[in-house]
Amino acid sequence: MKITILGSGTAVPSLQRNSSGVLIQDNGVNSLVDFGYGNLRQLLNLGVTYHDIDRIFFTHNHPGHVSDLIPFLFGSRYQLDARKKDLEIIAGPGFQDFFDKLMLAFKHWLKPTEYKLNISEVDEGVRDFGKLKVQVGKVKHIAMSRGYRFTND
Ligand SMILES: [Zn+2]
Predict the structure, then answer these.
(1) How many angstroms is it from 141 CA to the middle of ligand 1?
(2) How far does residue 151's CA lie from ligand 1's centre (Å)?
(3) Cα 64 to ligand 1 centroid, rounded to whole Å
(4) Which domain CATH number covers 63?
(5) Is 143's pLDDT higher than 80?
(6) Domain count of the chain?
(7) Least trusted range by pLDDT, from 14-18, 55-59, 86-90, 95-99
(8) What is the pLDDT, as a whole number, of residue 68?
(9) Cα 142 to middle of ligand 1, angstroms
(10) Ligand 1 centre from 138 Cα, in Å?
(11) Ligand 1 mean position to 13 CA, how many Å?
(12) pLDDT value of position 9
């Protein structure tokens, strides 16, 4: 398992630190934990594009944790090089409603054209995602907040 910090900053714009984001690469699968602003460019620096992300875990939906999802979804529709790989989003209860409203706000501009997007809301417990075992737990912040512990054995 290779872990790369894409952003460790806050919601305050900074040239030193991006907003929250972590890339977890395991057995050829690219997972993100949060997708704050600056993360997309940081991924490009690593040679990882919008085609390469398999799964995104969101800790919660504050802007510093979700904002690069918007250009990611928009770019994934790019007619000349549309994303084809299905995308899975995992987040706490309430994320689906937030996501639906986000999609509505941007009309059709974020809707997948050539891939499927599946959202799973998780509460607590252990779930398997391929070879990754993920323990999900509530985190004190907002009701939707979840923490994730990743193990591979
Ligand atoms: Zn927050």
Answers:
(1) 7
(2) 25
(3) 7
(4) 3.60.15.10
(5) yes
(6) 1
(7) 14-18
(8) 98
(9) 7
(10) 13
(11) 15
(12) 94
Domain that holds residue 138: 2-152
Mean pLDDT score, 5-18: 93
Which tens digits make up the pLDDT trace of 101-135?
999 999 999 999 999 999 999 999 999 998 899 99
CA of 62 to the centre of ligand 1 (A): 5
HSE (side-chain half, CA atoms, 13 Å) at 42: 21
- Between the CA of 99 and the centroid of ligand 1 the distance, in Å, is 16
* Rounded distance from Cα 27 to ligand 1 centre (Å): 30
